[in-house]
Amino acid sequence: MFATKTAAQDLAEGQAVRGRSLWADARARFFRNRAALVSLVILVLVAIFAIVGPFISPWRYDEIDWNVLGQVDTAGRPSATHWFGTDRTGRDLFARTVQGTQVSLMVGIVGAVIAVVVGTLYGAIAGYFGGRTDNLMMRIVDVLMSVPYMFVLILLLVVFGKSMIMLFVGIGLISWLDMARIARGQTLSLRGKEFVEAAVATGVAPLTIILRHIVPNLLGVVIVYATLLVPSMIIYESFISFLGLGVQEPLTSWGALISEGAGEIVNGTLWMLAFPLFFFVVTLFAFFFVGDGLRDALDPKDR
Amino acid sequence: MTKAFLGTTAAIAMIAFGGAALAQATHPDTGEALSENQSFSYRLLDQFPTLDPQLIEETAGGHVARQMFEGLLTQNADGTLRPGMATEWSSDDNQTWTFTLRDANWSNGDPVTANDFVYAWRRAADPATASEYAWYVELSQIVNAAEIIAGEMDPSELGVRAIDDHTLEVTLNNPLPYFPQMTVHYTFMPTHQATVEQYGADWTDPENIVVNGAYILDEIAVNEFFHLAKNPNYYGADDVIIEEITGYVINDSSQALARFQAGEFDMMDSLPPATYPRLEAETPDVAHSVPRLCSYYYVINQSESGNPALQDVRVRQALSYAVNRNVITDQVLQEGQAPAYSFTHWATAGFELPTIDYSTWTQEERMARAAELIEEAGYGPDNPLELDLIYNTSEAHRQVAAVLQQMWRPIGIEVTLSNYEWQSYLELRGNQNFDLARGGWCADYNEASTFLDLLTSNNSNNDGKFMNEEYDALLAEAATSSDPQPLYTQAEQILADEAAIVPIYHYTQTFVLDPTIRNWPFDNAENNWYVRDIYRVADGS
Amino acid sequence: MIAFILKRLLIAVPVLLILIVATFVMMYAAPGSPFASDRGIPPAVMANLEAEYGLDQPFLVQIWRYISGIIFEFDFGPSFIYRDQDVNDLIAQGFPVTLTYGFWSFIVAVLVGGTLGIVAAVRHNTWLDYTAVGISVGAQVLPNFVMAPILVLIFTLWLGWLPGGGWQGGQIQYVILPVIALSTSFMASIARIARASMLEVLTSNYIRTARAKGLPMRRIVLRHALKPALLPVISYLGPAFVGMITGSVVIDVYFSTGGIGQFFTASALNRDYGVMMGITVLLGTLTILFNLVVDLLYAWIDPKIRY
């Protein structure tokens, strides 16, 4: 669940400050990595599936096939009418998997973006100002590290009801702390660079320096970290869905579909588990390999 | 060497002894060969919060209390009354009841007296006990119960007294012909005063508990299991065949079914959704479905806070007509539930269903009529009526809600589904923050008023705020009538005409039971079972 | 060093207080009540219940009673749902269970995961490496709520080797399945981390020197490479531990082990305020303590870090 942490570790320790010319270099390195390349293709395919799916599916995701309802075990098998079969309520599983893919990818990406934006800004500010500010801000991070977030998120969802926004924000906020540490470490080494000193000397406002000069130079690290964060976010979401605190019916997500499918193992209707699980596993695999590939590409210590 | 030798002789002695026991082990009445293993184990969906009869407020604890404590009366397999601690009960006016108690002892040897009942009942009503089920004492109409609960009177003022050790007299505010039925309930089981006072909240711990029923708590691990052993001091101990009871708490139904099939326990209910038809087909002697006195319905919010369209009877009728109940019972749930057109469960004792018009129509006719009605009310597929539907989290409720949503769409009713956890859902429903809400109601006793009272204007659980004077008058009359059944039938007719609720189905209790367990009370529609009545036969008999 | 530990522990106190207050505020704001029932409890009965649990008191009085109870008597108050139990009893019963299978999962994850990762790194780019990477990514992404029912299906229903749940005081046959289900994804993470860092260490100059001197590979790995390669694994242990405790809810639900994970959602769902607060304090304390232990461990292995 926390593989991103090592990536974070590596990145925090590495000297990722490089000129822009290295981007081309990195691209070349990335494209030489076959696993990463294949994974990237897979991710693109999954994205196409999520976007195009609703247009090619003959069924709506909340539409019940009354002919199947009641005999899902036999009539609901994958067939020409229902490509992925149907769920227990006679709804087309292809349409639902498409819908679930949309939700899960969205939670993953939005969650990762929230974590990355909050974490980067926080870390960059702490690192840039240094001294007492830095000390105080990083103490706060240490303190927040000791909050059992998942439990707090569960409480929030239970107490204030389920909502997409709470889910996005909650999951995103679980992970910004690491990003903050990484960004701070990087900023500390950037601060001494000539271009930053030049900007300070010419009287550019600190916030502008952070946004214009520091953050763009953190981009490499941020991208790698974000790629590795997305699968963690998706896994968190599936856990929340398993607890029944995910998205509302008739919307669904990978986690919700898998959790329902797992409950159907006793009935032998394995397709209800297999299709969503396949997309879930394949996508997470791909994100991990792309993330590893990006790290290798952007962090050219010869391995 | 010696040790091994001793072991062997012991084993031989055991075999001989066991063999002798085996030869005698037949059921005294039926003559069936009994198994050597007289244990019964079952699965609980959730840990029961308490085993204190006066504090219990849910079924899981109720089942255990029924094994450990015995009230004045108990039930036969078919749900009719049979003597418990009381051997005789009588009343001249249905208002003052007298119970004659048998000679029986608590598990610590103390005699069970009428005072134990007086103590327990006062305790149930006493504000200091803070029982969630105190309302049951009030419901039973015992004199001064309401005042005691409200803290206006001392618990000793409760209308129940011990004339002598063996005679209990109960005085009610109104005549209540079914009062003896109500004494079966766990709230009215006796508790041992000295034990409760000595140990406080810990009195139900295995080392402290004192019981008067057939079994006694032996061991408990919260959220894992509990174990009951036979109580040798029970007055009927000689007739009790099952020696021990174990209950396993297993939250996940699929997991529980897998463990049942692996032979880890003998009985489970709350089967995973959609498994019953397969189980019934594959193992008809294991899977069972019996009527259970609960009704599943949708509450229509007719108060100011609901969608104003719901105050229009045509809209409510359209909602009800458009529901194809057979699809829900036969295709979604598939556990033998009966499609419902009335609120009162069909199996309720003495209840006679009125002929409800639309129950005899075909679904096409109902849909056509629903479409007409909704159009008259000013809505239709082009101008849909938008409603919020709430239900509490559960796979079965989710499925029913999703199906209803699709059934209402063709006539121009678009519902938005929201599921809430139990506590939030109750709060929303109780405050009329919904248009449509799932409802389920189970009988507290086997009589139609347990259902119908719910929809009277001043009932605090009337969450849809259905108000009808004629209906209120009928139920008020029924409460004191010597023959209330025709009145109940009329009341149901009003509910149907006014579409006060959308009845969906009448429950069944589906469960799997190991076929070697015999004498299970399948006909008890309140799902009250007493392990002391059942037994396990030897394999193959 | 001791000053460092004291400082960390001192910070923990305000953190826990803030956590308690925040949770308290949250449950105060939550809709619903622990005593709500579809039987509609009459107002008089509800008032009696609220008085019994002090819910009729002003907010500040309630929170002061709660905090002072913990500080002065180490009493976490009653459970609002389990009327026969108080929070101390419930945690005392459940926590050892969670700790037991958590501990074994932890050991399995570290040993198996670490070994897998190191072997993969040493045999870099061989079939062994590819297999190990494949297995670990696969294991990492398979949710434990899918794994648990599959394990029961195989080992309980088909093979009949192991009981499908229960705890029975922690007898070995009851511990195996929960430990497998809980440890797998962490084991996989550790394998990935160990492999990556071992690869990095093996390409460093001092290892190259050692190899150039002709030392046997086995000795290089065990003597020189292992310790630095384990550093990232150690810093992962803190989050892993917290993740395992959180994941125990799945274990308790599926295997009916009776641990405290069960209460994470149940206490919030039932509005069992007492248990909810108790769990918050317990988890907060554990997280703080474990992060501290990991930091100390890190300092012990990495001589560059001094506190």
Number of helices of chain B: 17
Mean pLDDT of chain B, as a whole number?
Answer: 89
Q: What's the main sheet of chain B like? A: 7 strands, mixed
What percent strand of chain C?
A: under 5%
Describe what this molecule looks like in 3D.
The complex is a heterotrimer of chains A (303), B (541) and C (307). By secondary structure, chain A is mostly helical. In chain A, 73% of the residues lie in helices and 0% in strands. Chain A is built from 13 helices and no strands. Chain A is elongated and about 75 Å long. Chain A starts with a helix and ends in a 5-residue tail after the last helix. Chain B is an alpha+beta fold. Chain B has helices at 2-24, 59-68, 114-125, 134-139, 145-149, 179-182, 193-199, 253-261, 276-282, 313-321, 325-333, 363-376, 395-408, 422-430, 449-452, 469-480, 485-498; strands at residues 39-44, 73-75, 81-83, 86-90, 96-101, 160-164, 167-171, 215-221, 225-230, 244-249, 267-269, 287-300, 338-339, 385-392, 413-420, 436-442, 501-513, 517-518, 535-536. The model of chain B is unreliable at 1-23 (pLDDT under 50). With 307 residues, chain C is mainly α. Chain C contains eleven helices and no strands. The N and C termini of chain C lie close together (6 Å). The chains are: A mainly alpha (303), B alpha+beta (541), C mainly alpha (307). At the B-C interface, helix 4, helix 8 and helix 14 of B face helix 2, helix 4, helix 6 and helix 9 of C.
